[in-house]
Amino acid sequence: MWRSVRNYFSHALPGASRRWDPLLAVYYLTYACDFRCPYCSDGAQNPYYELRAKVLPPDRVLELLRRLRRACDNVVITGGEPLKYPQLDQVLRGLPSLGFDGVVFTTNGHDLAPHLEAVAGAVRYLVFSLDTLDHERADACFGVGQGALARILTNIDRAETWVGSGALREIIISAVATPDNLDDLRGLYAWCKRRGFRFALCPQLQGVHPNAALRDNQAYHELFDYLLAEKRSGGPVNGSPKYLEYMRDLRKFACRPFTTVAVAPEGGVFYPCLELGQEAGNLLEEPDLARIRALGEARFGPQPRCDNRCQSACALGFSLILNDPLSMVPEVWHNARNALKLG
Ligand code: SF4
Ligand code: SF4
Questions:
Q1: For residue 127, what is the domain's CATH number?
Q2: Quick check: 340 and 333 in contact, CB under 8 A?
């Protein structure tokens, strides 16, 4: 916790330092994935499952995470599909001893069942990617045959029985809004609300830019208005009202890429962000993030002045926390109110 406070002020105080003090580390455990979601895309519009990278053995993964822990209180384990990492349970069982405050694990959920005990022992926030409850549409989108959504929903039911035991505290449903699924997302949110899951919605990005068909799209706009109203009445919607407004309007924001650090499967650190795909150094060879930042700056230049882009949870969310901290007051109040309700 204290690192988060220190790192926040390292960004917030005038004359921001040349250090790299992230509020969140994001580790891409593997790029492998069996799914073929049509919107799957890194910052250069390559689907993750087409990226080639070796995976590290579990002891090296844990060493990498140990180095991230020295810099940061919170980590996201993601992919690709992290369940495709061959020795996942070994990594998960080693994670608690590293002492992260918050471990987030993102998954499509399809192959989760045999790993649930290990996940519940290490992960605080379990994030399922889901964009519709329509079985036909979902199965067609995933590309792994009929019955995929049914299996995922069964695994979500199973995961729910673990919430409150071990480390697991919350299930989050993360959805991508595309021009094709806007009609399904209110129903998905209503289902989340009934089940007590948090609902996180982001626009589809094609590379770094939002799908142009979402801009000035009335249904997209109205969907976010609906979520904003839900949020204001205490509904389980992820993000502050200001964040949701930026998502709705696909508004430009002043990015703060050094609030996160994104790390490739083999330990390469993306400078200044995953989206630009530039690796500045390997954390297993150079443990000092400030040094890696300096190497990145020497090789790729200073932080770029980006156009209107990257309305993603990390890039937009952390930038707003820094640029407009008062916008977080309703979010803090919302969380406190929910915590009191739970208590
Ligand atoms: S589940 Fe995730 S990584 Fe796999 S294809 Fe879909 S978006 Fe890409
Ligand atoms: S807006 Fe931020 S996250 Fe996106 S490319 Fe620019 S620096 Fe990277």
A1: 3.20.20.70
A2: no
